[in-house]
Amino acid sequence: MTKKRPVTFRPFKAPRYAYDKLRVCRHCGNYTALGEERCGKCGRAALRPAGRQAASLAGRKMHTRLLLLLLLTLAAVYFGQSLQQMALSGAGGAVLIAALYYMQRKVRQNENLFALNELLGRNIDRIREGLELNRQEAVAVLREDDVLAYEKLREISILLRGDRIARQRVALLHGFQLRKDMNLELEQLLLRDFEPLLAEYIGEIARVRPELIKDRTLRYVKNYEVQILEMNKGREILAGVAGAAVRLKRNALLYSGMIGRYVQELPKDRFLRLSRLISASPHEAWNGLDQRIAEVREAKYRWDPDF
């Protein structure tokens, strides 16, 4: 059995928007999701947030429009047939320039978003290439520093999704002792098929951070319940997940069948929570869970004053 060791992760906060993690090198155009100071491809200290790069491009377009209108105004003044025509052309051009400047300021945020969408769409292949280079860099440091490798993969996974990077992260987490105070994730690591290491990780999460057990995780566990039962301590994992599920009435109802199969193994506080949920909503469709609770309560907690 792999010996788990205590580790400490650097503080990490997922950005509001995934593209906030993306930076582009102004020299070679390489993209990265890591917090490095220099470009991993050309080595230049020329990295810039993609959002700021897009805002710069949008600003250039706006300035170009203003400059074009200014040139048209000057041309109209220059070719005026009289002083009056020149004055009217100059005044009309000034009004148009002021109006365009005002309108551009009003829609600047939309222009920035449009420019960002255009920038990312035009460079999607470069972005994929840059993120793959980031992933390879994380794998390269794995032997020397598995914690650093995990932290790099965690950064990259904001933008690079898929089973391959999720498997790598789960494999690394398998060697770490998990604690309640750690910045842990779960739903971002769920795979399309069954993975024993992921099932073990879900069991650990159910123990230290049960609030992370949500609908997608419960569906995953239900889909692969048979495979998990075949694992060493598989029933313990399923009982832990069942205990986490009863935190919310909605989950207790949706997964009542699965929870009922592990009621006997639930800790007393989880069993009490579930018993009170059912007592408060006796007319809900508990799918036989209410009867199972009554049986276990009679057999196990008959003389317990909490019940």
Key features of this structure:
14 helices; 307 residues; mainly alpha; two-stranded parallel sheet; 59% helix; three-stranded antiparallel sheet; 4% strand
What does this molecule look like?
A hairpin with a 5-residue loop joins β2 (23-25) and β3. The strands form two sheets. The protein has a three-stranded antiparallel sheet. Strands 1-5 form a two-stranded parallel ribbon. It is mainly alpha-helical and 307 residues long. The relative contact order is 0.08. The two termini are 40 Å apart. The protein has helices spanning 50-78, 83-106, 108-122, 124-140, 146-156, 163-173, 196-208, 215-223, 225-229, 234-245, 249-254, 256-260, 268-280, 289-300; strands spanning 5-6, 23-25, 31-32, 47-49, 176-177. The protein contains 14 helices and five strands.
